[in-house]
Each structure stands twice: as structure tokens, then as C-alpha cells.
Predict the structure.
Amino acid sequence: MKTVRLNKHEEKRLLQGHLWIYSNEVDTKQTPFAHFSSGQLVDFEDSRGRCLGRGYINPKTLLCGRLLTKDPEEKIDQDFFIRRIKNAVSLRQALYTKPYYRLIYGESDFLPGLIVDRYGDLLVVQITTAGMETLRDIVIASLVDVLSPSAILLRNDHNMRLTEGLPQYVEAAYGEPPRRQLIEENETTFSIDPWEGQKTGWFYDHRENRRQLRRLVAGKRVLDVFTYVGAWAIQAAVYGADQVWAVDSSAPALAKCAENAELNQCSAKIKTIQNDAFDQLKLFAEEKTQFDVIILDPPAFIKKRKDHPQGFQAYKRLNTLALQILTKNGVLISASCSHHLSEQDLQQVICAAGQTAHRDIQILTRGHQGLDHPIHPAIPETDYLKAVFCHVT
């Protein structure tokens, strides 16, 4: 393999467990980027020539390298991927009794650039880097070897691929992936569209947070904002809510929500509303419509660090609008999937919204991403999801 040499003192973060190399950390006099192709497997070494590990490089990007192993003798072949996949499967099988979970979570499972969600005997794979794209055939063969799925779908339509100089596409990699797939979460069943749905078709990361609804919604009027296909709304109905309003701007998503309500025999409790979330919250306030439990699970308002000030205000405005239509002694569940909005930031959002709406707030508990989304202790970016459960007077 070719070798990529780092500048002096740039190995410290890797020695502490991190897996990323930035282009300004590379000694381009000793190892010019022109010598490497996108996705090429390389060895990384410090300024004195000591090996730091083996991985891949993309000379066209700022985040140009990722380590796959720190063992300079380990081959990056099918046996390597089989070992890593078996480790990931072993962890998930220890945590869950049924095969519905995030199977591989990129860097946290020591396979940077690779996401795999398991939906029974269907696997949906997302490859986000040039290095993992180069290894695609080996990845697919290894998944088939370990899990013997009926089908594997590649959902390679993530925007990160554009940064890596990769094309976006969705295609079958193995078998015939269905257009409709049933999955299970907590005590509910859902129909998802793995070909057209957001990301890989489902968001397993809120599984444990949605389980909290069992203690909060019995006999209540519930509002689920940004419902998507009804994950929060339908579990609220199953857990005993009297009525549930599900709001989303997407008609196809709401059609799936209605289908999932029928699957779980709770259609009579679910009312879907197609509208912009902010506009609908204002409309509820004008109509003086109130709810006992409000769930806010928006898309990421802060995708880059520079977006933080504007995104913070968007989160504050959303939470303020929700507090204005929450009943006395109601419950607000406020979530964020923006890595750049910290847990402390979200708490500040809620505090500021409470002041603006003239409501007193008690934090009951905090939620995080599920156990199938483990956090790499050296990579803060793997810790992104947070939810705050509030009692509001």
C-alpha cells in the first residue's frame, strides 16, 4: 500500500482513538495528494514514519482520510468486514430480541462511511464515502455471508456523497428489495417504503424515547409535529392516548401514517393534518386548540456550525409556539437531531421559550439515541440525538 505521512504533532488525535484525518494534517511535500486516487486504501504514518493505521483517502475533500484499523498488518478484505459485521450483530442481538435495528453505525462500529439498517430479512445500506464505495462489493458479499438476507437495498442518495465526489443513486444490490416492508418497534408494527422514504426508510434512533410515552399519554390529547410516517403518533395511540393529531407537510408521509394507524388498529384515534409545522401551530393558537402532550421532533435545523445562531432561534420559535397551546400541567417532548445543538443548548432553547410563553417548566428526564447507535468516545459527532421531556405549568 501507499503511505500517507502526517505533519509533525498531527497524530495526537488518532492516538487518542479518533479515526479521521484532515487534509491540512497531511505532509503534502512528502506525500502529495496527486499520488492518490479517491477511495484508495493507504497506510497512515506520523512525521517520524511510525505507522498509525490503515484506511482510505480521498484527496478531494477536507476530511480526507479515515482509519479502518490500527493494525498495520491487517488486510482490508472480506474476512475483515465479516469480523466487523459479526461484532456488530453480536452487540445488537444482545440488546434486541427481534431483527429490527441499526446494524452498523459508521465510525461507532469502526466502519466509517457505512450505515446498515436491518428490517427483518431486508438490509438497507448507505455508503457515504469514496473509500467505502470502492469496497462496496466486498461489503455486500460480507453482509450476505454473515446474515443471509433476502435482499439488500443501496440507498446511496445522501448529500454527503456529493462532497465526496460520488454519484447519488438507489438500487438493489442483492435479491429483490420490496417497495413495502413491515417492521416492529416497541409494541407497534409499521409499514415503511425503503426505496422512497427518508434516509433508509425509518428512524430507529428514537426507539427508547418513544417507549417513554407509555407513562405519559394515557387518556390525553396528543399532538405529534413532524410526524413523518407516524412513529410517535401511533405509539401514543397504542399506549392509550384518547386522540392524536399528526402534522406533516408531506402528503405521502401522512398516507403512510394513516396506513400504519390501520395496521395498529388505532385509526379512530389518529387525525392527520398536512401543513407547515410553524403555520399549523399558529393556527391552533388562533383557534384556541390545546393539547395535553406535544411532541416536537423536527429535522435538523443546524446542519453546519455556522448555522447555529439562526437554527437556535428556529428551535426557540418552534418550542414557544408549542408551549402556547399546551394545557396546564401538560407535557412537552422536545427533540433535536442536530449535532451542533448540544443538550445544554436544547435546554436553553426550552428555558427561553418558557420565558417568552410565560410558562414554568420542569424537566422530567432526558433521552438520547438508542443503544443500536453507540457513541464513539473520541468522536463527538457520533453523539447527536437528544430529547427533553418537560412538565409545564
